[in-house]
Amino acid sequence: MSDSGEFDLIANYFTHRWPSRDDVVLGIGDDAAILTPAENSQLVIATDTMVADVHFDQQTPARAIGHKIAAVNLSDLAAMGAEPAWLSLALTLPKVDEEWLNGFSHGLREICEYYDCQLIGGDTTKGPLSVTVTAHGFVPADHALRRDQAKPGDWIYVTGTLGDAGLALAAQQQRVQISDAHYRRVLERLYFPTPRVAIGQSLRDIASSAIDVSDGLLADLRHILKASNVGARLAVDELPLSMALTESVNEEQAIQFALTSGDDYELCFTVPESKRGVFDTLMSRHPAKPTCIGRLTNEPHKIRLEHDGERWQGQLEQHGYEHFRTA
């Protein structure tokens, strides 16, 4: 990609008609951005990469890729209780494809507008298709949500429904057969996840720990258990499941999708008993109240799965997604 081609690409697709913020002194167009951090706040920074044929394939619309690469980063900020502010983009392309760039930039700009984020810079290069975004946000000093403050007895919650993105991927790969209506719904969940930014911010002084569910509930919950040195008891019959999931597969398969599928980008968090009343009052004003699915125990790193109060007898084929896993 020549210098003139690179600069034209940036000007044509990532400069005009994009949202702007007052705390950006200098954005795209110089060697680096100049920003004004919010007073009495701490910066929260997250980075994610999506690579062609690893995180998405040729079926994935460019608009969905633009949306999702921002959404997965904003979901990380949500898990920290942060307010999104700025994004930087590193885009590697095999060639300049105007139709693809139109769709990609449209999807990215839409989510930036919705969450009041400004694209402040980045890099464009020629090579195998991959997209990296770094998201920056603010949180009041010493009020960020973390993974290492949970205690035995805290209640475990999740937002939204679990397993839909995994079902969409399984349907794409023809591992399950589902109706066209259900496929459209779960494909929307896979392509256009919703970062739970508002709920994350509302949990700052309530939740004892939080994480976003990107690699599967069990895999991500284990990060909290490890960081806080606690265990968990989960009620698999309380997992929030969509109608699309429960009508497409049997109960055991639905539970497996909910426990181990990646790409949900919901929040999993814990609430102490002493904060439960405040939490219930606060969440009553949210259109989709989070679901309580279990409680933390004093058995470090152990997860007990129960159904109707008894040990669940189902078998898990996997425990979540992990890069570089060996056979």
Q: Any descriptors?
A:
four-stranded mixed sheet; ATP binding; Phosphoribosyl-aminoimidazole Synthetase, Chain A, domain 2; 60s Ribosomal Protein L30, Chain: A; alpha+beta; 327 residues; 10 helices; globular; single chain
Give a nutshell description of this structure:
The protein is of the alpha+beta class.
What's the helix and strand layout?
Layout (H helix, E strand, L loop, with lengths): L2 H12 L9 E3 L7 E2 L5 E11 L10 H18 L3 E11 L4 H17 L3 E9 L3 E11 L14 E4 L5 H9 L7 H12 L5 H6 L6 E5 L3 H12 L2 E5 L7 H4 L4 H10 L5 E6 L4 H8 L7 E7 L5 E5 L2 E2 L16
Parallel strand pairs: 4-5, 9-12
Antiparallel strand pairs: 1-2, 3-6, 4-6, 7-10, 7-11, 8-10, 9-11, 12-13
Helix pairs in contact: 2-3, 4-5
Please describe what this structure looks like.
A hairpin with a 7-residue loop joins β1 (24-26) and β2. This protein has 2 domains: 3-140, 60s Ribosomal Protein L30, Chain: A (2-Layer Sandwich), CATH 3.30.1330; 155-311, Alpha-Beta Complex (Phosphoribosyl-aminoimidazole Synthetase, Chain A, domain 2). α2 packs parallel to α3. By secondary structure, it is of the alpha+beta class. The strands form 3 sheets. The protein has a 7-stranded mixed β-sheet with strand order 8-10-7-11-9-12-13, with helices on both faces. Strands 3-6-4-5 form a 4-stranded mixed β-sheet. Helices cover 33% and strands 25% of the residues. The longest helix has 18 residues, at 62-79. The model has no long low-confidence stretch (mean pLDDT 92). The protein contains 10 helices and 13 strands.
